Amino acid sequence: MSDLLSRRLALLDSAEQRDLLRHCRHGLEKESLRVDPAGQLALTPHPQALGSALTHAQITTDYSEALLEFITAAEEDPARTLDELDAIHRFAYAQLGEEKLWTHSMPCKLPAEAEIPIAEYGASHIGQIKHVYRKGLAVRYGKAMQCIAGIHYNFSLPEALWPLLQQAEGDTSPAQDYQSERYVALIRNFRRYSWLLMYLFGASPAVCASFLKDREHHLETLGEGTLYLPWATSLRMSDLGYQNNAQASLRPCYNDLDSYLGSLRQAVSTPYPPYEAIGLHDQAGEWQQLNTNVLQIENEYYSSIRPKRVANPGERPIQALGARGVQYVEVRCLDIDPFLPLGIDLLTARFLDAFLLFCALEDSPTMPGDECRECTSNFALTVKEGRRPGLQLSRHGQPRELKAWGLELLERLAPCAALLDATHGDNLHQQALNAQRAKLEDASLTPSARVLRSLREDHLSFFAFAQRQSERHAAWFRARPLDAADNAAFEQSVRDSLATQAELEASEQGSFEEFVESYMAAIEPA
Asked: pTM of the prediction?
């Protein structure tokens, strides 16, 4: 343990500060494809019984009309966060008829690209922006890749923590700058150590062969209809996922918030010749992307973690961060665990809390280019070969075995887990740490290994395995309908969201072209 981490832990372990960490907040965003009874992508519109995908706070869509996204509030107790996610699932299943949710990160059997429906958000200007943005993703990356699903874990430390640390460390910068600086430091440490999360929680070592039809790849065949890599943990997070030439050259700096935001502003404003060749409009004059730059909007940049701030109505994410600093982080690299009905459980959440607290409190020097590339390489190697016996990663240019380094990291995390347990009066974080230690000692316990074992032992294709798990989880949710009061509350939120969308559309003024121009100009570099 570094001296800095020891001092910070000691400060938080004092009697008067012991309860501070009770006020961390946890939120979840979970994506799931809607599929028909045969496991094919649902081609039906977003069910009106689920409300407006534009304005409902808990139920929306991501890329495709069939890619549902469930969003929880940020709760101090992650158990309550999971309970809310459970309730959203139970309500949704009551509205889905014969359709069900695909409980795997890699997609079901997809139709031809032209038939994959892009999400619709109505006639308002902001609804059209969201739709055209997704059309841009289609022409830039292809539709199939946009049907990959995951879980985002939103985490914040208590607002009262930052002035306490700032005063103890004699920092005299503005409070907002200090808080943002500490969150960006957390992100740097996350980049250093997030390969461990891919080993422990990666759950997509195989894909349906139909996903890669007509695409070059280096995967191996595992029975009919299944492609895989024998030691992979998360093909979702590999170069099969969100990669393209434009983004490959984009490496936002995480050494301070201003340079990070500046690099994204630059990308949103810099023309990219292949996208210029596509053009803003198709031959029929319809919009097909918001601009022809490296990124259409800042959210197009794919990363395993993002600094975040709740935006005000009409405010862009970059504007919110620039004006009021970092409020929380969004961890974006978690696969859906197909063995869990919710795709994530409390044990995982407890470990993530200890891991993120460690990343926040441990010393986090700025990252030179060599270390940045080393972190990227370690992550990429783990998603493709993480369970390979004796796999060597690189630490400060020197080889380091993944297993040994992982066990060392857990020892460094242990004081953070112990502090969280002392705060809550239990040993749940230590239990979570022990569960992850067992996976490092025995790779067969990891979700990725369990998926491959199920395919082999049950003689299933990837599609048949994912279909079986989806059916099991659907039955579990449908057997537990909401009580009348909770169901009525969801139905009211549906009605409210539809009314809000209708009001937005009725009050719209000006042309869509003018709206796009104003929307883009809001974050252009000075």
From this structure: 0.96
